[in-house]
Amino acid sequence: MGYEVDFLGVGSESKSGDAIAIRFGNLHGSRHEQTVVVIDGGYSDTGNELVDHIRNHFGTDIVDLVISSHPDQDHINGLEVILNELQVNELWLHQPWLHNHKLADEFADGRLTDSGLGERLKQNLERAWLLSKLANRKGIVLKEPFTGLTDKSGAVKVLGPSQSYYESLIPDFEGMPARAENRSLISEGWFDKAMRVVKTFFANWGEDHIADDGQTSAKNNSSVITQLIVDGRRLVFTADAGIQALEYAADEVDGCYSGAELTLIQIPHHGSRRNVGPTVLNRLIGSPVAQGVQSGVTAIASTARASEPKHPRKAVLNAFAHRGARVLVTRGQGIMHYHNSPGRAGWSSLTAEPYHFSYEEEV
């Protein structure tokens, strides 16, 4: 058994995104001995690149499973191309408009109805709604990816979100009415953006410059966190999940009796400083190690070519390095992580990210 995990280089300019192609099984054998999975499809033009990649490097037009982590355009837009151009057997996609029972009770405006809110969710999350309609027209098996869902092989499993946690997030999705209780995250306004400045920071090994109280949007926290276990190796894909969502996923990992060791972890939200903290990193990867010690974990951030200093945050990359991870960043280029797979012509080893003893960040 082996695997190939390809992070496509999404974002030629400054807008980062995610598009991940995976195949696992007997990669030296025939197609029926392998499983092909796509997690997110980047932007619309990324979808065509992903189709070509699967045909050229995986040698197939069949995708066993497509997972839409959440309905942000940098993750979902390219998936329509995948469903149209390839034979997709199964799609995992959240359908929040199906979770509108008693949803009106969450909001201050007593004129709102559950039905009306369901329609609003379809409109606000139009790409997800259209993707579900496309899947139904094509006869693709459609499932909602909540904690515990596994694929036919049993190797792919959803670590989060649970259905109850997901439903608790829906009222705080962008475009929803004001809540009865003021629990929504405050979005960054134009004044905050105008006041940003770039500052130079200095770091010492082992000192995390991230905090446990970082917050991200409800939609980001609704991201599907996916686990793949092959040959006793655990691979975790986090999309844009935030600290709370990752803590719930860590609970699932703690309760897993497979004995699999973490080999790969996706750095959440393109390396945003709001999505990870020291405590959850300790749970997922392990405690900080001495400089030069390797944990055997590879951590990959998917970022656009010109997205720095916003993505990835150097403090986040350093925090993964503190725990012995080999840190890699796409910066608009593809990265392949593999085990027991055939060689691939034209691909070469990538040098790990250096430790950033000084760096500039927007504050």
TrEMBL record:
Task: Return the protein name.
Answer: MBL fold metallo-hydrolase
Q: Which organism is it from?
A: Alishewanella maricola
Biological classification of the source: Bacteria, Pseudomonadati, Pseudomonadota, Gammaproteobacteria, Alteromonadales
